[in-house]
Amino acid sequence: RLADGCREVLGALEQFAREDAVGDNEREVLAAELRGRIAEVSLCPYGNFIVQKSIAMFRPPAVQFMIDELTQVPGNVIKTAKHKFGCRVLQRLLEYCRPDQVTDLVIELFEDAFALCRHRYGTYVMQ
Predict the structure, then answer these.
(1) pTM
(2) Which of 59, 67, 84, 106 has the greatest count of CB atoms below 10 A from its CB?
(3) DSSP assignments along 30-95, one per residue
(4) What percentage of the chain exceeds 90 in pLDDT?
(5) Distance CA 118, CA 39 (A)
(6) What is each CA distance from 69 to 25, 58, 60, in whole angstroms?
(7) If you average pLDDT over residues 80-98, what whole number do you get?
């Protein structure tokens, strides 16, 4: 089941957080498994937790590919911001990444700021 697989991956991420022996390379290998799937996994009821945890645990440069994937397709940032699970991923990116990393995300969000502020889930991203 997807929920069980999600729990296993989250467990591995938690173990990485507790073990000093696990370096950035091992974490980045795990993050690389998400490459090419960020837009899809961010909208998944279970997968979004993995993306959120990765953003919180990895150094900002290691999650740059996530930002790149979300901004690559026009309108994808807005779609993600308006999604029940995707909005959480954007919140984590804005919370943990450097300002220079999220500039493109913020620009796209500001282009539709009025509608997002009034949207059920978009408002959480805009706060």
Answers:
(1) 0.86
(2) 67
(3) HHHTTTT-HHHHHTSTTHHHHHHHHHHHS-GGGGHHHHHHHHHSTTHHHHHHTSTTHHHHHHHHHH
(4) 63
(5) 23
(6) 21, 17, 15
(7) 97
